[in-house]
Structure formats: structure tokens, C-alpha cells
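Need a sequence for this fold. Nothing fancy.
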């Protein structure tokens, strides 16, 4: 059984992060503080991490890793952990700590990874509602001063 409502999924672009238009839209919304880093492996795009200042309150956090995504072939090899470390270091240099990160409650692998990397749960809240279905997310944050970076 899926985690998101079928009619919601039906209305979404299939594999949005595999689409050049989606990548262009993400990059176009970067500014001096919010930065998308694209990772290339052997000259091929492998994924990205996007980080910047929080746009709404998330506990005491001033910075946030807004999105992180790796194409399937590049997962579970330590790359995501390295990208998170890099994004945290960038936010620390920009004085945007503590750093938050979020995941849907059903994204157990991502939540396990963030917790293993030292992030602690801050909040559980509604991410969005669709057709009577409430989808929740967990907000996590790395305590200040950042450890392990
Ligand atoms: C979530 C995501 C960014 C994590 O990146 P990743 O590169 O897969 O993560 P890592 O490899 O650093 O760590 C993941 C697991 O692989 C393990 N791992 C690390 N290096 C490894 C290696 N060399 N070989 C095998 N496994 C390894 C880690 O121990 C970790 O296990 P754990 O989660 O049980 O602690 C990535 O899996 C992804 O893009 N997923 C789909 C999109 C998504 O869910 N994004 C997050 C939205 S909030």
C-alpha cells in the first residue's frame, strides 16, 4: 500500500526529479543564501542537496536542509551522509545554525539516517492534507554546536 493518496500521485509528474524542467525550477529559485548543490559522478548527475535559511519557524533552527535526493543507483553508498555533512558545514559557515531537516513520517530510511547522523526530533506536524488524508512530517534538528562536522 502506498503512503500518498492515489489521486494525488496521479496528478504528479512521474519522476519529477528526473525531469530537466524540475531541476531548472529548483535552480532558478536559488539566491545568495539558498543554494542547490548538484552532485556529479563521472560527469553524470547523481543527485542534489539544497540548503538555506528557514522560511518559517522550526524550533530554534535558523538553517535547513530543504531537500536531498540521489538517483537510485547512487544510494546507500555513503554519498547522502557526505552531502548532509557538507550542507551542515555550509550553513554553519553562513551562521545559519542550528540546522533542521524534515522527512515524511513514512520515510523510515531517511529518518533513520538523519537520527544516526545526530539529528534529534523537534516536532511532528501536518505536512499537507489531501482528500481527507493527512500526511505528517517529522522536523529534526542538529543541536548547536554541531557535532561531527
Ligand atoms: C535519503 C538519501 C538522500 C540518503 O542518501 P544515501 O546516500 O542513500 O545515504 P547513506 O548511504 O549515506 O546512508 C544510508 C544508509 O546506507 C548505509 N551506508 C553508508 N555507506 C554505505 C556503503 N558504502 N555501502 C552500503 N551501505 C552504506 C548507511 O549505514 C545508512 O544506513 P542507515 O540509514 O541504516 O543508517 C537517499 O537514499 C535518497 O535520495 N533517497 C530518496 C529520496 C529521499 O528519501 N530523500 C529524503 C527526503 S526527506
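Here you go.
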Amino acid at each position: 500500500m502506498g503512503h500518498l493518496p492515489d489521486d494525488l500521485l496521479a496528478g504528479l509528474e512521474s519522476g519529477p526529479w528526473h525531469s530537466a524542467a524540475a531541476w531548472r525550477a529548483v535552480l532558478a529559485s536559488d539566491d545568495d543564501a539558498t543554494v542547490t548543490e548538484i552532485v556529479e559522478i563521472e560527469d553524470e548527475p547523481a543527485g542534489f542537496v539544497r540548503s538555506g535559511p528557514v522560511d518559517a519557524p522550526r524550533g530554534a533552527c535558523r538553517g535547513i536542509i530543504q531537500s536531498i535526493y540521489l538517483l537510485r543507483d547512487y544510494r546507500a553508498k555513503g554519498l547522502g551522509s557526505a552531502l548532509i555533512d557538507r550542507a551542515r558545514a555550509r550553513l554553519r559557515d553562513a551562521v545559519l545554525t542550528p540546522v533542521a531537516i524534515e522527512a515524511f513520517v513514512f520515510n523510515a530510511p531517511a529518518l533513520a539516517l538523519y537520527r544516526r547522523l545526530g539529528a534529534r526530533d523537534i516536532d511532528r506536524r501536518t505536512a499537507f492534507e489531501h482528500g481527507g488524508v493527512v500526511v505528517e512530517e517529522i522536523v529534526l534538528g542538529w543541536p548547536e554546536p554541531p557535532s561531527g562536522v
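For context: Residues 47, 68-70, 75-81, 103, 107, 109-110, 112-113, 116 surround coenzyme A (CB under 6 Å).
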